[in-house]
Amino acid sequence: MQQLVPFLLLGLFAGAALADEPVTPRFDQRQENQQRRIDQGVASGALTQREAFRLHTQQDRLQQAQVRAKADGVITRSERAALHHHQHHASRNIYRKKHNRR
């Protein structure tokens, strides 16, 4: 039992540390959906490898922007709006690339 105590305490501290990080479930879900749309475009032939690479790069930049917004422990209304705007722009890019008949 004494051997479990350090692990239990570590779990409590890790849980407390994670609770301080702002959560962005809508952003995360939309990121997953957009990644899936890109992968489906490649599988169907609607996206070339080059287009997919560029779209994935854009998704990576969005993820980095989210990390920067979370860095101070709070995502402000303006940060959230900017993330949403950039996601919307990325979504339009995915649609355009998938429907450009290349």
What would you note in describing this structure?
With 102 residues, the protein is mostly helical. 79% of the residues lie in helices and 0% in strands. It is built from four helices and no strands. The chain has helices at residues 4-20, 25-44, 49-70, 77-98. Helix 2 (25-44) packs antiparallel against helix 3. 12% of the residues are buried.
Count of strand segments: 0
Write down the secondary-structure element order. Answer: HHHH
Structural class: mainly alpha
Enumerate how many helices there are, as a single number. 4
Average per-residue pLDDT, rounded, comes to: 88
The helix content, as a percent range, equals over 70%
Major sheet attributes: none
Overall outline: elongated
The N- and C-terminal alpha carbons lie at a distance of: 63 Å
**Which segments are poorly predicted (pLDDT under 50) over 5 or more consecutive residues?**
none
Using the CA coordinates, give the radius of gyration: 19 Å
Assess the beta-strand content as a share of residues. Answer: under 5%
